[in-house]
Amino acid sequence: MAVCVAVIAKENYPLYIRSVPTENELKFHYMVHTSLDVVDEKISAMGKALVDQRELYLGLLYPTEDYKVYGYVTNSRVKFVMVVDSSNTALRDNEIRSMFRKLHSSYTDVMCNPFYNPGDCIQSRAFDSMVTSMMIQVC
Amino acid sequence: MEAAAGGGCGSGPPLLLSEGEQQCYSELFARCAGAAAGGPGSGPPEAARAAPGAATAAAGPVADLFRASQLPAETLHQITELCGAKRVGYFGPTQFYVALKLIAAAQSGLPVRIESIQCELPLPRFMMSKTDGEIRFGNPAELHGTKMQIPYLITEKNTFKRMDDEDKQQETQSPTMSPLASPPSSPPHYQRVPLSHGYSKLRSSTEQMHPAPYDARQPLVQPEGASTGGPGAKPPRHQTSLIRSFSVEREPQDNNSNYPDEPWRITEEQREYYVNQFRSLQPDPSSFISGSVAKNFFTKSKLSIPELSYIWELSDADCDGALTLPEFCAAFHLIVARKNGYPLPEGLPPTLQPEYLQAAFPKPKWECALFDSYSESMPANQQPRDLNRMEKLSIKDMADFPVPIQDVTGDDKQALKNTVDEVLPKDMSEDPATPKDSNSLKARPRSRSYSSTSIEEAMKRGEDPPTPPPRPQKTHSRASSLDLNKVFQPSVPATKSGLLPPPPALPPRPCPSQPEQASEAELHPQLNRAPSQAAESSPTKKDLPYSQPPSKPIRRKFRPENQATENQEPSTTVGGPASVAAAKPHPTVQKQSSKQKKAIQTAIRKNKEANAVLARLNSELQQQLKEVHQERIALENQLEQLRPVTVL
């Protein structure tokens, strides 16, 4: 359902970013980048004491007229950002949450690979296929 | 035979062999053909035998022979193609002779062409050792089905080897070998041939390290379930001991069997080898290998990291960052295949699924229930829960491997499966418990392995740290102090905590200290000189002043931080203690003669000068330190700026 999925590392550089309509990739990259500010704002608003209790799913970060951007942060400050089409009204919050959960579990699988160095771009085919499965549903 | 060979070159130009060549070739051919008694060249052995000019050479021995020529696999493959063996599907005498001639040509440095055989060439040289043998269970039976001729070569080679070596053990290869269907690319197979050959050579030479250690390990294709009747002896044990001594390089082993995905089938020998490698990494076969251990192990295979990463992805079915025995075997096998040129599959082939691997090598000694659970999983069910049990069984199974009953469609297994189906639910109920344990167990090593890997990696890759290194100033309590030694010390704990040594920052650090120490050393003699001069005039009265000024430089040397802090203060403070020290002797001096007073005052003045010099030095060093800090900050900024750019 997503049109763009991005995995951002703790230092705010992208580990993985992929969008489905490939012609407008730059626009999605920019949206993801600007959404990072919102993510940081939400994280910092919790305060350090609440880090443990902070929920991983951040919800709707900000809506534009065409798209909605959702965010999710892991405990290691790795951020998942997902851009979905606004016209897709059937997409409920729970579905977004489940998509993020799938992303998170695929990400941990990538991490489990000893040949993956944390901080590298994610090149796992399994991860790619999982993201594709999430994105293809839209188109 | 010679004549036939000479005239029988069907497709290529006529093959003219010299006397010596004819003799040599026919002898080789006879060996290859004869060894594979009943070997499948094509169709019924009798027919093959009856063919004029001798039977077809069995693929196994031929492959062995070719490998013994020590030509690169690519060349051998070319030769095989050219001589027509692939075309006709067997190594007839003509093909064999042409191939030998081409080998000779290649060994002489000529290009491998049909035309080359027209030249006068020396005899091809083969390094084959005659004492090879055995362990390979050549299982002709396995060649049924869609086996390629070339891979058949490999399996045949096994049989050949065995035969060759132990002529006494004439295995009754079932003559039912039929020509195989067209197969995957031959080069990989061919490459496998060299491997197994190397292995057999190794074996024959009784554990001498094969120069290509990986070669040594080539377990030849073993008929997985093929009931080859004859060779019951399990050389694998012997093999595995050999294999263990080799370094880890993997080579592909072809596999037999009736399954279409031959390259992904693990033979018994391969399996033994994998199991032994597993044991070398992890003594408990039912346990798992952590990610970092496996990573180091697989990195030795010299495959690229992305490929290894992909292989891991394929083989680590439960994605726990650790490899159980079947996962390890699958990964090992994939690496072997990849090294032999096979492209990596899109998904884990069914024959490499952990459950399948567990079940494919059943052990007769298993308890029924376990066996049933295995057989139940044989149809490649996805039952990750059974892994734990399977691992144990597989290990036992591996321990002593009798003739494998590789017939996957074994009726007995299915019968057992049917009867024991009811056992399965019980097993499955146990499974949730065990997987949790295993998962929890695995989770711990996973986290450990991951963390250890990450720490190692982070330490190694300073350019890509999980967290930016903490600035030394944060840990340095006295930011304003010129405490160079202390500045050095915080950098060390900062390194440990930040997991990152800041390489650019450290080197400049020692420099400032040297001048300081050098200057201190200079000052020390100065100060000593000053007191000594004063001492000349008033030996007694100067004791105090002597003691005080000399102690100051000493203190500065040994405890520079304290002195540094004092020195940071304006020189007046430095002069202060000196003056204080000087002031103390004053009352005593007043009691003394004026001469002594003067001497003391001189000493005091000199001390003050020395102090002033030291203070100046301190300020200079402080300045230097600030500059170094700024440099460091600039570098760190640069690094951070650069980092996102490179990642993108």
From TrEMBL, chain A:
GO terms under biological process: endoplasmic reticulum to Golgi vesicle-mediated transport
Subcellular location, record wording: Cytoplasm, Perinuclear region; Endoplasmic reticulum; Golgi apparatus
Location (main, coarse): cytoplasm
Record-linked InterPro entries: Longin-like_dom_sf, Sedlin, TRAPPC2L
KW Ubl conjugation (keyword) present: no
SUPFAM superfamilies in the cross-refs: SNARE-like
Source domain of life: Eukaryota
Sorted UniProt keywords: Cytoplasm, Endoplasmic reticulum, ER-Golgi transport, Golgi apparatus, Transport
GO cellular component: cytosol; endoplasmic reticulum; Golgi apparatus; perinuclear region of cytoplasm; TRAPP complex
PANTHER family to which the protein is assigned, alphabetical: TRAFFICKING PROTEIN PARTICLE COMPLEX SUBUNIT 2
Family the entry assigns: Belongs to the TRAPP small subunits family. Sedlin subfamily.
Protein name listed in UniProt: Trafficking protein particle complex subunit 2-like protein
The species this protein was found in: Equus asinus
Gene of this entry: TRAPPC2L
UniProtKB/TrEMBL annotation, chain B:
CDD domains in the record: EH
Ranges of residues in domain EF-hand: 303-338
Cellular component, GO, one term: plasma membrane
Matching Gene3D superfamilies: EF-hand
Extent of Polar residues compositional bias: 529-538, 562-574
A Pfam family hit: EH
Biased composition (Pro residues): 500-513
Domain EH as annotated: residue spans: 21-122, 270-355
Cross-referenced PANTHER family: EH DOMAIN (PTHR11216), RALBP1-ASSOCIATED EPS DOMAIN-CONTAINING PROTEIN 2 (PTHR11216:SF64)
Protein name as annotated: RALBP1 associated Eps domain containing 2
Source species: Equus asinus (Donkey)
Gene name, Swiss-Prot/TrEMBL: REPS2
